[in-house]
Specification:
Layout: E1 2-5, H1 11-20, E2 25-27, E3 44-46, H2 54-59
Parallel strand pairs: 1-2, 1-3
Length: about 60
């Protein structure tokens, strides 16, 4: 599973997520406009929402 996160999390939280969910690939601190290659693969997008557009949702064809 691939998680794209545009949320700025403290390093200890990133490490905790990766430690607790070893079967998930996390892309942390990505700017949504710079993550065009990850969007089609992402199954989950973790965001506050202010940076997400309809175009991003359409490009994220693998969302669960």
């Amino acid at each position: 599973m691939i998680v794209l996160s545009t949320v700025k999390l403290p390093n200890h939280m990133k490490e905790q997520l990766e430690s607790n969910f070893k079967n998930i690939t996390f892309y942390h601190d990505q700017k949504i406009n710079e993550a065009k290659d990850i969007l089609p693969k992402a199954e989950i997008i973790l965001t506050y929402g202010e940076d997400l557009t309809d175009e991003h949702i359409k490009a994220a064809t693998n969302l669960k």
